[in-house]
């Protein structure tokens, strides 16, 4: 009896285990089916990372924040743009690489774009852009029909033109009134071959360095000075480690709202439409904010103890002829680009 009872108990346990396995399998299939049904809604919620080098208080930070606010309201859950400033996702060169890798979705390069295509070095020509009205004409007549297609062939889709701004020089040695005052100064520049050439022509000793490293380089004396728009100077707190601010206004640099062409093609058409339209309409906010910052930040930097002087721009323009000549002779179509850009301002 005991033997028979044991066989009966083992058979019952076996049946129980088999039933339990069937139940677990049915539960797993039901869970998988539920996940499959729910997955389209999850897939629609794209997270788009927008990396840039601007610090809090910079024009870049304000521009990206405004864009993300407007775009996310219109996307209404289909996608979400998230801004990452202060080089959190990488420096300019790294961001360009990460766009192609797909680890970053949007970036806001400026001067560094001249390293992607020589033709973009047009915006490194000194005193080329007279004001934002002139820039609007250049954008319409040169940027969209000529430069943007060149960048697309390099794998970068530009969906809007924003601003970095008019650049000025700071240093710890002396006020810069004429090019001769730059003689021998160790000057930080962005990673643009044409910017380096320009300052060499003026007599300085320029070297490129990532923006995130500039403050320490100035603080330690690795560089005597640097050049940037006021918004970058103030947000970078360069006034804490620089004595002189010389208002040279030597170059105006646009900023390019950029995504990789490969990634852009993969986005849903309705999402692309919202992003592109919103990026273009944000330009008005960017220009208005930039103009106001030029006034407010100049007063702030003066109040912070910087000695400010207005440089002799005519002297700088006269000293800039060699860089124009080199651009015309070395860049395919360079002379035509310059002639077309300067035409509207005459």
What does this structure look like?
The chain starts with a helix and ends with a helix. It has helices spanning 2-44, 59-75, 92-101, 132-153, 193-202, 214-219, 230-235, 261-266, 269-303, 313-318, 321-330, 334-342; strands spanning 46-51, 79-84, 106-107, 156-171, 186-189, 205-208, 225-229, 244-247, 252-260, 307-310. The strands form 2 sheets. Strands 4, 5, 6, 7, 8, 9 and 10 form a 7-stranded mixed β-sheet that branches. A 3-stranded parallel β-sheet has the order 2-1-3. It has 12 helices and 10 strands. With 346 residues, it is α/β, with parallel strands linked by helices. β1, α2 and β2 (79-84) form a beta-alpha-beta unit. The chain is globular and about 55 Å long. α2 runs antiparallel to α9 and α11 packs across α12. The model is unreliable at 1-8 and 26-42 (pLDDT under 50).
Identify low-pLDDT runs.
1-8, 26-42
Percent of residues in helices: 40-55%
**DSSP helix count?**
12
- Beta-strand proportion: 15-25%
Gyration radius, to the nearest Å? Answer: 28 Å
- What is the tally of beta strands? 10
The assigned structural class equals: alpha/beta
Give the topology.
Blueprint: H1 2-44, E1 46-51, H2 59-75, E2 79-84, H3 92-101, E3 106-107, H4 132-153, E4 156-171, E5 186-189, H5 193-202, E6 205-208, H6 214-219, E7 225-229, H7 230-235, E8 244-247, E9 252-260, H8 261-266, H9 269-303, E10 307-310, H10 313-318, H11 321-330, H12 334-342
Parallel strand pairs: 1-2, 1-3, 5-6, 5-7, 8-10
Antiparallel strand pairs: 4-7, 4-8, 4-9
């Amino acid at each position: 009896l005991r033997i028979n009872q044991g066989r009966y108990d083992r058979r019952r346990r076996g049946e129980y285990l088999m039933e339990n396995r069937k139940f677990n399998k049915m539960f797993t299939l039901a869970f998988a089916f539920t996940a499959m049904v729910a997955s389209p809604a999850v897939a629609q919620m794209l997270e788009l990372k927008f990396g840039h080098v601007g610090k809090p208080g910079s024009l870049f930070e304000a521009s990206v924040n405004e864009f993300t606010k407007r775009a996310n309201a219109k996307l209404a859950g289909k996608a979400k743009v998230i801004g990452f400033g202060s080089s959190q996702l990488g420096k300019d060169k790294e961001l360009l690489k990460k766009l192609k890798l797909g680890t970053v979705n949007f970036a806001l390069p400026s001067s560094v774009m001249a390293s992607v295509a020589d033709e973009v070095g047009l915006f490194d020509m000194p005193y080329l852009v007279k004001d934002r009205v002139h820039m609007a004409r250049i954008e319409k007549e040169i940027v969209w029909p000529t430069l943007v297609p060149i960048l697309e062939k390099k794998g970068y889709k530009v969906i809007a033109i924003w601003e970095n701004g008019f650049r000025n020089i700071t240093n710890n040695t002396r006020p810069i009134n004429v090019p001769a005052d730059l003689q021998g100064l160790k000057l930080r520049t962005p990673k643009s071959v044409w910017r380096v050439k320009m300052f060499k022509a003026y007599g300085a000793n320029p070297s490129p360095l990532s923006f995130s490293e500039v403050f320490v380089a100035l603080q330690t004396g690795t560089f005597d000075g640097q050049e940037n728009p006021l918004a970058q100077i103030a947000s970078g707190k360069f006034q804490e480690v620089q004595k002189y601010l010389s208002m040279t206004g030597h170059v105006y640099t646009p900023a390019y709202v950029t995504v990789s062409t490969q990634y852009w093609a993969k986005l849903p058409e309705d999402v692309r439409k919202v992003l592109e339209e919103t990026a273009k309409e944000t330009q008005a906010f960017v220009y208005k904010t930039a103009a106001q910052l030029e006034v407010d930040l100049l007063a702030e930097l003066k109040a912070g103890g910087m000695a400010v002087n207005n440089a002799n721009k005519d002297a700088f323009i006269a000293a800039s002829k060699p860089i124009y000549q080199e651009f015309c002779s070395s860049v395919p179509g360079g002379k035509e680009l310059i002639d077309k850009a300067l035409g509207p301002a005459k």
